[in-house]
User: What shape does this take?
Amino acid sequence: MTPRSVDGDNRVAVASDWYARMRGPEAANDRLAFEAWYAVPENARAYREIEEIWNTAGRSSLRKQPADRRTSVRWKPLAAVAAIVLLLLGVSLLSAGSPVLPEQAPAHVLALASGDHERRAWGLADGSSVLLDGGGALAVEYSDAERRIRLDRGRARFVVAHDAARPFVVFAAGTRVVARGTVFDVAAGDTGAEVTLLEGVVDVSAANASKPATLNPGERIVAKDGRAGIRPVPAATARWTEGLLVTQRLPLGQLVAEANRSPGARIELADPALGALKVSGTMRLGDPRLADKLAATLDLAVVREPGGIIRLQARR
Assistant: This one.
């Protein structure tokens, strides 16, 4: 075997590992590393070969080999790798202690929730996964006809496995999202919902809307008070799963609300009017010095109070 073929086998093995990881419960946390690896053309080619194996396996059987001998030779080792991927997927889901939903069972509801300052991930039996931000709650209801999620509060990232026969539908604050093998975020608030698409395609039906709106990657729809509007979002928005927030003239009030989802001291604004101040930059939400950095940037004063409260106020 030549050094080149050894390298090729290693690349396929790594691709199969990535395929398993991106369909496991920690997929959202690994996505940025995956995208960096996938940016190498040879890696992307190996990954697409693994996808081809699984797509074909879903339509028919791997026993139906192509007639062309060269294609058959290429598929034999890949088919073996695909079997390994299946094992990896099973291990990743079970080792995480994730609740697994039966694929062919009567519909039932499973409630999932995260603590105020924690993010939790679950793998689902169809190969999808969900990452729930701090203080979130959702309900999962799978049936033979539909995969339904109800996001009651908080924010979640969904990595959806394709299943044309069973739509993956998320309901949040009067908004309905239908996904087709995709990656997207949904946030449910008191007055509406936000849907941000990272990969694939989703159809979003807001309350009182005459027809669904289709999102493309890099777009967000904000449904609030019966109105909805689509706007572009920076790619780095996806990094909330790492505890990072990338902002461009974000109101301070929104930034503080994001920061208070993370573990650590709670930040409050002494005057609600301060919430309109604009902040730009990349911030780590769990940074214990975040309030001091914001104060220095915006020329505010920091007051530390008992109970871990940090108050930002105008300088006297």
Residues 113 and 141 are 15 Å apart (CA to CA). The longest strand covers residues 147-159. The helical segments are 3-21, 27-38, 41-59, 69-95, 252-259, 290-298. The mean pLDDT is 75.
